[in-house]
Amino acid sequence: MNKILVIALLSLPLPALADFMDVIEFKLKDGCEFSEYLEIVADFNDNWGKKHEYRSEIAAPVQSNNLESMFWVGRTTDAATFGAAWDAWRNELADSDSKASQLSARFAECSENIARRGYDTY
Fold first, then answer.
1. 114 burial class (0-12, 13-18, 19+ CB within 10 angstroms)?
2. CB 76 within 8 A of CB 22
3. Across the chain, how many H-helices and E-strands are there?
4. Which of 27, 70, 88, 113 has its CA 20 to 30 A from that of 37?
5. Nearest-angstrom CA–CA distance, 43 and 101
6. Cut 0.70: pTM above it
7. What are phi and psi of 100, to 5 degrees?
8. What pLDDT shows up at residue 18?
9. Domain edges within the chain
10. Where are the beta strands (DSSP E) in the chain?
């Protein structure tokens, strides 16, 4: 009976749980308040990220050996979706009137990127 149950469970389709995580370590520039940065992030999520299936949140340190750096944690359903979003972002930067170009300028005024990493999560 147990063997039949195991075989039945293994034959069911299992949903994929993997995401791709885009992690950017950054510091705020002098004169930029955290609330201002969060407004840019909200604009990114609402007016660019949704269209490209990319969502982000900010991790601010509470306990760390480095209390200055914060982390942008962007997520897509997989690396291919991230790649398509990255291609769109990079291509839109060539047009100064595009939303990506405007957001990039606002991020550059407010923050300095330190490092960037990508991860598959399971």
1. middle
2. yes
3. 4, 4
4. 88
5. 13
6. yes
7. -60, -45
8. 72
9. 23-62+78-122
10. 19-28, 55-59, 70-76, 111-121
